[in-house]
């Protein structure tokens, strides 16, 4: 057992089915979906009919006016989730050495709303009409930089680019930082805002996205996944650090994160599940967890037949005959897939599941080869959770979380 485990002491969520950790967790247990039809202006000619959009989000509440004009919606979600996370962790930044507070963010589609607006200004009005902030609003490190500025973070900074696996890759980077420098506290935060005409054109060629109104992973026939927007953040620190500052509690221990790469194709599913299975097995080994000790799995749940079949095959490889018995949760069926922020959202769900001992439900047809949780499972006896994420281009990642007792 790790004598000084790395624990999650704060969570922040901005999701299509709720803003704030408590509100979103309550909505998840009530099976309230944030997926709804997209307007014609949003979907354009993409053929994508539904998506998970955040309603009731007031950027003014979380982002100061000077910072709003410099940033895109995806960064707003990241900033908002961070505010909620710090409040949840009861972290007083005035009492923290800023050089000991670091930030890691994942990035995927970037600031496409801001970028499209400024490019349209360039084409229609000329270069003098383009905002000077274009250069810093849409690139991959925008959110990490703005978080550092907003909160005066002067520790280490990193950005991961691994599409849908980026959230776990970011958490893994933070884990490695803390193990080499346990005096740090690390914010891991991500956002996603894919609903702009430019972004939708980029997504319309993806065969793994649903053209119907359904997102039901592992279903036959498969329909594909659904895009979502939002943000998620978590605060990582050692148990010793959390105890010293009298943190209100801790949700879970982040015991291990591993990543692999298929090196196969930019968009197509790989021919076999080997790389994903290696990521899962390595995560369990590094967390000192046996396969029969995993109590719940938060799967990637792509929704497309070939991707789902590969995930099932990887689980069979890692868990043997027991893979059909382990409870499987896919709460992202209520939010859509948030690309780089999606895996962080799954980590938030998994941490809450362990803290409250509740396996969250999955929407849609849950019949199939896996033991998909259809209704909330209370007093589930959860001690260990596995989170799986994948990204286009061959990215695979897995994380293991362990229970550390109920959150105060």
CATH superfamily of the largest domain: Thiolase/Chalcone synthase
Residue fraction in strands? 15-25%
Tell me the span between the first and last alpha carbons: 23 Å
Give the overall form: globular
Please, how many helices?
14
Q: Which structural class do you get from the secondary structure elements?
A: alpha/beta
Helix and strand sequence: EEHEHEHHHEHHHEHEHEHEHEHEHEEEEE
- Number of structural units classed as domains: 2
* Biggest sheet descriptor: 12 strands, mixed
Overall strand count: 16
Oligomer status: single chain
**CATH C-level label of the largest domain:** Alpha Beta
Summed over residues and divided by their number, the pLDDT gives a mean of 94
Instruction: Please identify, by name, the CATH architecture of the largest domain.
Output: 3-Layer(aba) Sandwich
Explain the overall architecture.
By secondary structure, the chain is α/β, with parallel strands linked by helices. The chain folds into 2 domains: about 5-245, Thiolase/Chalcone synthase (Peroxisomal Thiolase, Chain A, domain 1, 3-Layer(aba) Sandwich), CATH 3.40.47.10; about 255-400, Peroxisomal Thiolase, Chain A, domain 1 (3-Layer(aba) Sandwich). About 35% of the residues lie in helices and about 20% in strands. The chain contains 14 helices and 16 strands. It has helices at about 20-30, 40-45, 60, 65-70, 75-90, 110-125, 135, 140-150, 165-180, 195-205, 240-245, 275-285, 305-320, 340-355; strands at about 5-15, 20, 35, 50, 100-105, 155-160, 185-190, 230-240, 250-260, 295-300, 325-330, 360, 370, 375-380, 385-390, 395-400. The strands form 3 sheets. Strands 1, 2, 5, 6, 7, 8, 9, 10, 11, 13, 15 and 16 form a 12-stranded mixed β-sheet that branches. A hairpin with a 3-residue loop joins strand 15 (about 385-390) and strand 16. Helix 5 (about 75-90) packs across helix 8 (about 140-150). The longest helix has 17 residues, at about 75-90. The chain is globular and about 65 Å long.
């Amino acid at each position: 057992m790790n004598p000084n485990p790395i624990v999650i002491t704060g969570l922040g969520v901005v999701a299509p089915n709720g803003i704030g950790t408590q509100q979103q967790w309550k909505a998840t247990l009530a099976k309230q979906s944030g997926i709804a039809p997209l307007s014609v202006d949003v979907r354009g000619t993409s053929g994508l009919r539904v998506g998970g959009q955040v309603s009731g989000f007031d950027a003014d509440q979380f982002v100061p006016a000077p910072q709003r004009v410099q940033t895109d919606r995806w960064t707003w979600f990241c900033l908002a989730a961070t505010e909620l996370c710090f409040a949840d962790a009861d972290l007083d930044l005035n009492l923290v050495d800023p050089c000991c507070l670091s930030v890691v963010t994942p990035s995927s589609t970037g600031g496409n709303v801001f970028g499209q607006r400024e490019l349209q200004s360039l084409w229609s009005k000329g270069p003098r009409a383009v905002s000077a902030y274009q250069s810093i609003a849409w690139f991959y490190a925008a959110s990490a930089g703005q978080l550092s500025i907003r909160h005066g973070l002067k520790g280490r900074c990193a950005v991961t680019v691994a599409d849908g696996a980026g959230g776990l890759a970011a958490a893994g980077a933070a884990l490695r930082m803390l193990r080499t420098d346990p005096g740090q506290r690390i914010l891991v935060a991500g956002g996603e805002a894919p609903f702009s005409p430019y972004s939708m054109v980029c997504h319309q060629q993806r065969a793994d996205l649903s053209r119907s109104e359904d997102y039901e992973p592992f279903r036959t026939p498969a329909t594909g996944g659904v895009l979502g927007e939002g943000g998620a953040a978590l605060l990582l620190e050692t148990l010793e650090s959390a105890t010293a500052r009298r943190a209100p509690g801790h949700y879970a221990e982040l015991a291990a994160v591993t990543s692999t790469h298929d090196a196969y194709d930019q968009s197509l599913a790989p021919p076999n599940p080997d790389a994903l299975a290696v990521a899962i097995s390595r995560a369990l080994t590094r967390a000192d967890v046996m396969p029969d000790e995993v109590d719940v799995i938060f799967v990637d749940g792509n929704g497309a037949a070939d991707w789902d079949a590969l995930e099932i095959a990887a689980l069979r490889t890692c868990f043997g005959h027991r893979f059909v018995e382990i409870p499987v949760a896919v709460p992202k069926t209520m939010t859509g897939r948030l690309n780089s922020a999606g895996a962080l959202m799954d980590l938030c769900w998994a941490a809450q599941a362990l803290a409250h001992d509740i396996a969250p439900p999955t929407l849609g047809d849950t019949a199939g080869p896996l033991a998909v949780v259809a209704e909330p499972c209370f007093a589930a006896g959860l001690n260990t959770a596995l989170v799986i994420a994948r990204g286009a281009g061959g990215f695979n990642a897995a994380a293991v979380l362990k229970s550390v007792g109920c959150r105060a």
